UniProtKB/TrEMBL annotation, chain A:
<keyword id="KW-1003">Cell membrane</keyword>
<dbReference type="InterPro" id="IPR002758">
    <property type="entry name" value="Cation_antiport_E"/>
</dbReference>
<keyword id="KW-1133">Transmembrane helix</keyword>
<dbReference type="GO" id="GO:0008324">
    <property type="term" value="F:monoatomic cation transmembrane transporter activity"/>
</dbReference>
<keyword id="KW-0812">Transmembrane</keyword>
<feature type="transmembrane region" description="Helical">
    <location>
        <begin position="65"/>
        <end position="89"/>
    </location>
</feature>
<dbReference type="GO" id="GO:0005886">
    <property type="term" value="C:plasma membrane"/>
</dbReference>
<dbReference type="Pfam" id="PF01899">
    <property type="entry name" value="MNHE"/>
</dbReference>
<protein>
    <submittedName>
        <fullName>Cation:proton antiporter</fullName>
    </submittedName>
</protein>
Automatic annotation (TrEMBL), chain B:
<dbReference type="GO" id="GO:0005886">
    <property type="term" value="C:plasma membrane"/>
</dbReference>
<protein>
    <submittedName>
        <fullName>Cation:proton antiporter</fullName>
    </submittedName>
</protein>
<feature type="transmembrane region" description="Helical">
    <location>
        <begin position="12"/>
        <end position="29"/>
    </location>
</feature>
<dbReference type="Pfam" id="PF04039">
    <property type="entry name" value="MnhB"/>
</dbReference>
<dbReference type="InterPro" id="IPR007182">
    <property type="entry name" value="MnhB"/>
</dbReference>
<keyword id="KW-0812">Transmembrane</keyword>
<feature type="domain" description="Na+/H+ antiporter MnhB subunit-related protein">
    <location>
        <begin position="4"/>
        <end position="130"/>
    </location>
</feature>
<feature type="transmembrane region" description="Helical">
    <location>
        <begin position="111"/>
        <end position="139"/>
    </location>
</feature>
<feature type="transmembrane region" description="Helical">
    <location>
        <begin position="35"/>
        <end position="54"/>
    </location>
</feature>
Length: 168, 144
């Protein structure tokens, strides 16, 4: 299964790279070469990508990723950018590192949540600790009384719910 | 390295591998070629070494295999250069009258022996760079 996941991931990338070799589509020799070299790369990396990677082959999950990246993530990035621009103009900041307890199970969920937090300006993930189920986040403007948040809601909004769903 | 680096490396290493292979295979059509693509793929190997650490690399890295593959890369280059020996060394006989690799210029299967040589150089550069960097990482200890 790990081989199939790596192979499909590689082949999609190959198709993306070689699009346009015959009109707007692919010439047959590019398709065959893609099969061949994707198989080689997938065979060598099947131990790295991991056995559980095949759960990302689910098309429903791709749809959820697209919805997440153009919906909540993009919106959050735009809002947070304007917020940071405001902080730069006014200069009123209250920086610090906060420990955010999260309720996630696997590596992919931690990675998605950490990257989403880092992509929205004003917050930056320092470290993810799965053993204590917490993230350490550098926050540029901690609101009063939120130095020890109970959950990730004040730091990242709805991102934790999405990360739990996407990485499952 | 931490959890996030490891998980990202799991997704990124096949990506770097296939992109480097793309550079090698299209060496006669687009910028790049054997050395550039091979160095790109070696970057994936070094990312593995940095992200997962030396102990994991020791299990995955096989000295004899990499040594043999580097030799095969060099020998393939030499063998393809000898193909047109009836006329001259490095005579591109595959392009002039060969059975394959003589398609319409601009397509994948054109340019005679160049794609094969690019693959050979890519293999040699990848295995050579990964071997060199792993050897440096394995160097005995900090003091003496």
């Amino acid at each position: 299964m790990a081989f199939i996941a790596a192979f499909i991931w590689c082949y999609i990338l190959w198709l993306g790279l070689t699009a346009g070799s015959s009109g707007l589509l692919w010439s047959s020799e590019e398709l065959i070469a893609g099969l061949l070299f994707s198989a080689v790369v997938a065979y060598t990396t099947k131990g790295i990508i991991g056995e559980k990677a095949s759960r990302f082959l689910n098309p429903i999950k791709w749809l959820e990723f697209i919805v997440y990246s153009i919906g909540p993530l993009f919106l959050g990035m735009v809002k947070a950018n304007f917020h940071v621009a405001w902080l730069v103009i006014t200069g009123k900041i209250r920086p610090g590192i906060v420990r955010v307890p999260v309720d996630l199970e696997n590596d992919a969920q931690y990675t998605i949540l950490s990257n989403s937090i880092t992509l929205t300006p004003g917050t930056l993930t320092i470290d993810a600790c799965p053993e204590e189920k917490a993230l350490y986040v550098h926050w540029i403007d901690i609101p009063e009384g939120l130095e020890r948040p109970e959950n990730s809601e004040p730091v990242s909004g709805s991102f934790e719910k999405w990360a739990r769903r996407l990485g499952r | 390295m931490g959890l996030i680096v490891k998980t990202t490396a799991r997704a990124i290493i096949p990506l770097i591998g296939i992109f480097g292979t793309y550079i090698v295979v299209h060496g006669h059509l687009t910028p790049g070629g054997g050395f550039q693509g091979g160095a790109t793929i070696a970057g994936a190997g070094i990312l593995f070494l940095v992200a997962f650490g030396l102990d994991e690399m020791k299990e995955q890295y096989n000295k004899s295999l990499y040594s043999a593959l580097e030799g095969i890369g060099g020998l393939t280059f030499l063998g393809v250069a000898m193909l047109g020996m009836g006329v001259a060394f490095f005579y591109n006989t595959l392009w002039h009258n060969g059975p394959f690799f003589n398609g319409q210029p601009g397509t994948l299967l054109s340019a005679g022996y160049l794609p094969i040589m690019n693959l050979a150089v890519g293999l040699k550069v990848f295995t050579g760079l990964v071997s060199a960097l792993t050897t440096i990482a394995l160097y005995r200890r900090w003091k003496s």
